[in-house]
Amino acid sequence: MDEAKLYKKIKNAVGRGVADHGLIAEGDRIAVAVSGGKDSYTMLHLLEALRQRAPIRFEIMALTIDSGYPGFRTDIIAGHLKEHGFAHHVEKTDHYGIIQAKRREGSSYCSICARLKRGALYELAQKFGCNKLALGHHLDDFAETLLLNQFFVGSLKSMAASMLADNGITTVIRPLVYVTEAQIIEFARLKGFPVVCCRCPACGEADMQRKRMKRLISELERDIPHIRQSILRALSNVQPRHLLDRQLFLKTVSPDDAAPDESA
Ligand SMILES: Nc1ncnc2c1ncn2[C@@H]1O[C@H](COP(=O)(O)OP(=O)(O)OP(=O)(O)O)[C@@H](O)[C@H]1O
Predict the structure, then answer these.
(1) pLDDT confidence of 1, banded at 50, 70, 90?
(2) Is there a domain that residue 22 lies in?
(3) What is the domain-level CATH number for residue 16?
(4) What sections of the sequence does the record tag as coiled-coil (predicted)?
(5) Residue-range definition of the domain harbouring residue 62
(6) What is the pLDDT of residue 206?
(7) Does 262 map to a domain?
(8) C-beta neighbour count of 172 within 10 angstroms
(9) Which residues are CB-contacts of 202 (< 8 A; sequence separation ≥ 6)?
(10) How many structural domains are present in the chain?
(11) What does the pLDDT read at residue 260?
(12) What's the mean pLDDT in 131-150?
């Protein structure tokens, strides 16, 4: 697909995601979390394109967490963002040191690293007066997370497109909810984004279980071409009465809920 066509497709998908889930409102100040990976570069550029043509006013700035792994080229990220005129802050942290001290032998870096990063991003968003924090999760992440939770956790959940964070202040948004990873890979290649990796031992590698979900979906895709879109549609077409969560069931059929809405 040529670049203009792909760009239009992604732009429309971001626009739909933002509209469907009410991700952006007048006066928002959005901290865009940019890791130096293909997803967050794509998100940042698409949000800026949206900002320029949107009928409402909102601001964006980019935030990067340097977790302290030797060799992470945040200067390359900063150079690219400066060249494109983005406000950008790099926060240098000692997460690497904390992880080395706290990590149990043989356990993964990723979960503790992600938690530390998320905490730092919430703090920074507040510090820079941003009410929203945009993360670069895409359609494939939503589908894989749903399967991961079903297969390994025993829970029917994925990710929210918009959710108030635990700090009760920052709203986390995921504007790439309708954009596939394949579209992002192609877009990042055509745009020549200077992708860098954080240099942690797991850098650039999805964890093993996530890789299995990716593989499974790709294998099934040969017979079911729209499998990704279908999984995503399932997330917005929940039929609680056909599930087994007793709390959900009781809530769904409680007399209060069933009563006609007097306020209508
Ligand atoms: N070091 C970081 N600094 C700022 N934001 C980050 C950083 N690491 C991750 N994020 C944010 O969290 C999102 C999900 O992180 P994850 O580690 O799963 O990356 P990813 O799926 O490889 O995405 P990307 O291609 O943007 O790196 C990223 O898209 C980005 O928005």
Answers:
(1) confident
(2) yes
(3) 3.40.50.620
(4) none
(5) 3-207
(6) 75
(7) no
(8) 22
(9) 108, 109, 110
(10) 1
(11) 36
(12) 98
